[in-house]
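re: ur question from earlier - yeah i can do the single chain one, its not a big deal. heres the input i used so u can compare w yours
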Amino acid sequence: MARGKEVDLAAACAALDGQWALLRSWVAELPPSQYAAPSVLDGWTVGDLIAHLSRTLLLFETLQPASAAAPPLTIGGYVAAYAGVAAEIRDGAVHTAADIAGDPLGALDSTWATRRPLIDALQPGTVMAAMRGPIRSGDLVATRVIECVVHADDLSQSLPDREPVGLDNGALALVVRALLAVLAERYPGNAVEVRVPPFGVVQCIEGPRHTRGTPPNVVETPALTWVRLAAGRLAWSDAVHAGDVRASGERADLSGALPLL
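and the output i got, formated as C-alpha coordinates:
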Protein backbone atom coordinates (compact mmCIF):
# COMPACT_ATOMS: atom_id res chain seq x y z
CA MET A 1 0.00 0.00 0.00
CA ALA A 2 1.48 3.33 -1.03
CA ARG A 3 2.16 5.95 1.62
CA GLY A 4 -0.78 8.30 2.02
CA LYS A 5 -3.08 6.26 -0.22
CA GLU A 6 -6.46 5.36 1.25
CA VAL A 7 -7.23 1.69 1.72
CA ASP A 8 -9.87 0.62 -0.79
CA LEU A 9 -13.17 0.59 1.08
CA ALA A 10 -14.58 -2.46 -0.70
CA ALA A 11 -11.39 -4.44 -0.06
CA ALA A 12 -11.40 -3.42 3.60
CA CYS A 13 -15.04 -4.53 3.97
CA ALA A 14 -14.31 -7.89 2.34
CA ALA A 15 -11.33 -8.39 4.65
CA LEU A 16 -13.42 -7.50 7.69
CA ASP A 17 -16.15 -9.93 6.64
CA GLY A 18 -13.67 -12.75 6.11
CA GLN A 19 -11.82 -12.30 9.39
CA TRP A 20 -14.95 -11.79 11.45
CA ALA A 21 -16.41 -15.05 10.15
CA LEU A 22 -13.29 -16.94 11.26
CA LEU A 23 -13.32 -15.31 14.69
CA ARG A 24 -16.99 -16.08 15.14
CA SER A 25 -16.46 -19.73 14.17
CA TRP A 26 -13.61 -20.09 16.67
CA VAL A 27 -15.57 -18.52 19.54
CA ALA A 28 -18.52 -20.80 18.75
CA GLU A 29 -16.29 -23.82 19.51
CA LEU A 30 -14.78 -22.36 22.69
CA PRO A 31 -15.88 -24.03 25.97
CA PRO A 32 -17.27 -21.44 28.42
CA SER A 33 -14.77 -22.68 31.01
CA GLN A 34 -11.96 -21.05 29.02
CA TYR A 35 -13.38 -17.52 29.00
CA ALA A 36 -11.69 -16.90 32.37
CA ALA A 37 -8.29 -18.12 31.16
CA PRO A 38 -5.57 -15.46 31.21
CA SER A 39 -4.67 -14.09 27.81
CA VAL A 40 -1.28 -13.04 26.46
CA LEU A 41 -2.26 -9.43 27.18
CA ASP A 42 -1.34 -8.48 30.72
CA GLY A 43 -4.47 -8.13 32.84
CA TRP A 44 -6.83 -9.41 30.16
CA THR A 45 -8.68 -12.72 30.12
CA VAL A 46 -9.79 -14.57 27.00
CA GLY A 47 -13.31 -13.38 27.77
CA ASP A 48 -12.09 -9.79 27.92
CA LEU A 49 -10.58 -10.15 24.46
CA ILE A 50 -13.82 -11.52 23.07
CA ALA A 51 -15.73 -8.67 24.73
CA HIS A 52 -13.32 -6.16 23.20
CA LEU A 53 -14.00 -7.63 19.77
CA SER A 54 -17.72 -7.21 20.39
CA ARG A 55 -16.98 -3.48 20.82
CA THR A 56 -14.87 -3.18 17.67
CA LEU A 57 -17.73 -1.87 15.52
CA LEU A 58 -19.34 0.28 18.23
CA LEU A 59 -18.01 3.53 16.75
CA PHE A 60 -20.09 3.12 13.59
CA GLU A 61 -23.26 3.85 15.56
CA THR A 62 -22.30 7.49 16.10
CA LEU A 63 -20.12 8.08 13.04
CA GLN A 64 -20.65 11.36 11.18
CA PRO A 65 -18.87 13.10 8.28
CA ALA A 66 -16.02 15.27 9.54
CA SER A 67 -15.80 18.99 9.01
CA ALA A 68 -14.59 19.90 5.55
CA ALA A 69 -11.70 21.72 7.19
CA ALA A 70 -10.54 18.68 9.15
CA PRO A 71 -7.50 17.02 7.51
CA PRO A 72 -7.80 13.24 7.74
CA LEU A 73 -5.43 11.21 9.83
CA THR A 74 -3.53 8.39 8.24
CA ILE A 75 -3.94 4.92 9.72
CA GLY A 76 -0.66 5.53 11.53
CA GLY A 77 -1.92 8.78 12.97
CA TYR A 78 -5.20 7.21 14.05
CA VAL A 79 -3.72 4.17 15.81
CA ALA A 80 -1.10 6.36 17.52
CA ALA A 81 -3.87 7.42 19.91
CA TYR A 82 -4.35 3.88 21.22
CA ALA A 83 -1.43 3.95 23.66
CA GLY A 84 -2.79 6.97 25.52
CA VAL A 85 -6.15 5.32 26.16
CA ALA A 86 -4.96 1.76 26.80
CA ALA A 87 -6.38 1.68 30.33
CA GLU A 88 -9.72 3.03 29.10
CA ILE A 89 -9.86 0.39 26.36
CA ARG A 90 -9.11 -2.40 28.83
CA ASP A 91 -11.70 -1.15 31.34
CA GLY A 92 -14.32 -1.06 28.60
CA ALA A 93 -13.51 -4.63 27.66
CA VAL A 94 -13.65 -5.85 31.25
CA HIS A 95 -17.02 -4.18 31.89
CA THR A 96 -18.43 -5.53 28.65
CA ALA A 97 -17.13 -9.02 29.46
CA ALA A 98 -19.11 -8.95 32.70
CA ASP A 99 -22.23 -7.80 30.84
CA ILE A 100 -22.07 -10.49 28.16
CA ALA A 101 -20.71 -13.32 30.31
CA GLY A 102 -23.87 -15.34 29.80
CA ASP A 103 -23.63 -15.37 26.01
CA PRO A 104 -20.40 -13.97 24.46
CA LEU A 105 -21.17 -15.56 21.10
CA GLY A 106 -24.59 -13.94 21.09
CA ALA A 107 -22.93 -10.59 21.78
CA LEU A 108 -20.66 -11.04 18.76
CA ASP A 109 -23.64 -11.94 16.59
CA SER A 110 -25.66 -9.00 17.87
CA THR A 111 -22.93 -6.44 17.28
CA TRP A 112 -22.40 -7.77 13.77
CA ALA A 113 -26.09 -7.78 12.91
CA THR A 114 -26.69 -4.23 14.12
CA ARG A 115 -23.44 -2.48 13.16
CA ARG A 116 -22.09 -4.19 10.06
CA PRO A 117 -24.92 -2.74 7.87
CA LEU A 118 -23.85 0.75 8.96
CA ILE A 119 -20.53 0.26 7.18
CA ASP A 120 -22.31 -0.32 3.88
CA ALA A 121 -23.58 3.25 4.06
CA LEU A 122 -20.03 4.65 3.92
CA GLN A 123 -18.79 6.25 0.72
CA PRO A 124 -15.21 5.83 -0.52
CA GLY A 125 -12.98 8.78 0.27
CA THR A 126 -15.36 10.38 2.77
CA VAL A 127 -13.61 11.79 5.84
CA MET A 128 -15.43 10.64 8.95
CA ALA A 129 -15.34 12.07 12.47
CA ALA A 130 -14.31 8.90 14.27
CA MET A 131 -13.47 8.20 17.90
CA ARG A 132 -9.74 9.00 17.62
CA GLY A 133 -10.04 11.77 15.02
CA PRO A 134 -11.00 12.41 11.39
CA ILE A 135 -10.12 9.56 9.04
CA ARG A 136 -11.12 8.42 5.56
CA SER A 137 -13.75 5.70 5.38
CA GLY A 138 -11.55 3.01 3.84
CA ASP A 139 -8.79 3.64 6.37
CA LEU A 140 -11.27 3.53 9.25
CA VAL A 141 -12.58 0.11 8.23
CA ALA A 142 -8.95 -0.98 7.82
CA THR A 143 -8.32 -0.14 11.49
CA ARG A 144 -11.13 -2.56 12.37
CA VAL A 145 -9.45 -5.25 10.30
CA ILE A 146 -6.18 -4.61 12.14
CA GLU A 147 -8.03 -5.06 15.44
CA CYS A 148 -9.58 -8.33 14.31
CA VAL A 149 -6.35 -9.83 12.96
CA VAL A 150 -4.19 -8.79 15.91
CA HIS A 151 -6.70 -10.03 18.47
CA ALA A 152 -7.35 -13.24 16.54
CA ASP A 153 -3.67 -14.01 17.00
CA ASP A 154 -3.85 -12.94 20.65
CA LEU A 155 -6.62 -15.50 21.19
CA SER A 156 -4.62 -18.20 19.42
CA GLN A 157 -1.54 -17.54 21.54
CA SER A 158 -3.61 -17.36 24.72
CA LEU A 159 -4.93 -20.89 24.22
CA PRO A 160 -2.10 -22.68 22.39
CA ASP A 161 -3.59 -26.13 22.96
CA ARG A 162 -6.58 -25.23 20.81
CA GLU A 163 -6.70 -24.91 17.04
CA PRO A 164 -5.66 -21.31 16.26
CA VAL A 165 -8.10 -18.77 14.93
CA GLY A 166 -7.96 -18.79 11.16
CA LEU A 167 -6.52 -15.75 9.43
CA ASP A 168 -8.29 -14.57 6.30
CA ASN A 169 -5.73 -14.13 3.53
CA GLY A 170 -7.20 -10.82 2.38
CA ALA A 171 -7.32 -9.50 5.92
CA LEU A 172 -3.74 -10.57 6.65
CA ALA A 173 -2.53 -8.94 3.43
CA LEU A 174 -4.33 -5.69 4.25
CA VAL A 175 -2.91 -5.58 7.78
CA VAL A 176 0.64 -6.34 6.66
CA ARG A 177 0.55 -3.56 4.06
CA ALA A 178 -1.11 -1.09 6.39
CA LEU A 179 1.49 -1.65 9.11
CA LEU A 180 4.33 -1.41 6.59
CA ALA A 181 2.87 1.95 5.52
CA VAL A 182 2.79 3.07 9.15
CA LEU A 183 6.47 2.14 9.50
CA ALA A 184 7.42 4.08 6.38
CA GLU A 185 5.38 7.08 7.51
CA ARG A 186 6.93 7.26 10.95
CA TYR A 187 10.47 6.47 9.84
CA PRO A 188 10.81 7.90 6.34
CA GLY A 189 13.89 7.19 4.28
CA ASN A 190 15.43 4.68 1.91
CA ALA A 191 18.24 3.12 3.91
CA VAL A 192 16.37 -0.07 4.87
CA GLU A 193 14.08 -2.25 2.80
CA VAL A 194 11.52 -4.25 4.77
CA ARG A 195 10.07 -7.23 2.96
CA VAL A 196 7.07 -9.28 4.08
CA PRO A 197 6.47 -11.77 1.28
CA PRO A 198 4.18 -12.22 -0.47
CA PHE A 199 2.25 -9.17 0.70
CA GLY A 200 4.41 -6.08 0.71
CA VAL A 201 7.70 -4.21 0.82
CA VAL A 202 8.65 -0.69 1.90
CA GLN A 203 11.76 1.39 2.30
CA CYS A 204 12.30 3.35 5.50
CA ILE A 205 14.88 4.85 7.85
CA GLU A 206 17.08 7.81 6.95
CA GLY A 207 20.49 7.08 5.47
CA PRO A 208 22.28 6.38 2.20
CA ARG A 209 19.94 5.51 -0.61
CA HIS A 210 20.78 2.60 -2.91
CA THR A 211 20.38 3.09 -6.64
CA ARG A 212 20.60 -0.39 -8.10
CA GLY A 213 20.65 -4.05 -7.17
CA THR A 214 19.99 -5.42 -3.72
CA PRO A 215 19.85 -2.68 -1.08
CA PRO A 216 22.59 -2.86 1.57
CA ASN A 217 20.13 -3.10 4.47
CA VAL A 218 17.32 -5.63 4.19
CA VAL A 219 14.82 -7.00 6.69
CA GLU A 220 12.62 -9.94 5.69
CA THR A 221 10.05 -11.69 7.83
CA PRO A 222 6.90 -13.82 7.48
CA ALA A 223 3.56 -12.04 7.60
CA LEU A 224 2.43 -13.16 11.06
CA THR A 225 5.82 -12.39 12.57
CA TRP A 226 5.60 -8.88 11.13
CA VAL A 227 2.12 -8.37 12.61
CA ARG A 228 3.36 -9.52 16.02
CA LEU A 229 6.39 -7.25 15.87
CA ALA A 230 4.35 -4.24 14.78
CA ALA A 231 1.69 -4.88 17.43
CA GLY A 232 4.21 -5.31 20.24
CA ARG A 233 3.45 -8.98 20.74
CA LEU A 234 6.98 -10.09 19.86
CA ALA A 235 10.31 -8.48 20.70
CA TRP A 236 12.71 -7.77 17.86
CA SER A 237 15.59 -9.58 19.58
CA ASP A 238 13.46 -12.67 20.19
CA ALA A 239 12.33 -12.79 16.56
CA VAL A 240 15.89 -12.44 15.29
CA HIS A 241 17.17 -15.08 17.72
CA ALA A 242 14.44 -17.51 16.65
CA GLY A 243 15.30 -17.02 12.99
CA ASP A 244 11.92 -15.48 12.20
CA VAL A 245 13.60 -12.28 10.99
CA ARG A 246 16.40 -12.16 8.45
CA ALA A 247 18.26 -8.88 8.80
CA SER A 248 21.34 -7.94 6.79
CA GLY A 249 23.27 -4.68 6.87
CA GLU A 250 24.44 -2.43 9.69
CA ARG A 251 21.19 -0.41 9.64
CA ALA A 252 18.85 -3.42 9.46
CA ASP A 253 17.77 -3.20 13.08
CA LEU A 254 14.17 -2.10 13.67
CA SER A 255 14.22 -2.53 17.44
CA GLY A 256 14.06 1.23 17.91
CA ALA A 257 11.12 1.62 15.53
CA LEU A 258 8.89 -1.13 16.89
CA PRO A 259 6.21 -1.63 18.06
CA LEU A 260 3.91 0.55 15.98
CA LEU A 261 0.69 0.02 17.96
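Residues 137-158 form the longest helix (22 residues). not sure if urs matches, ping me
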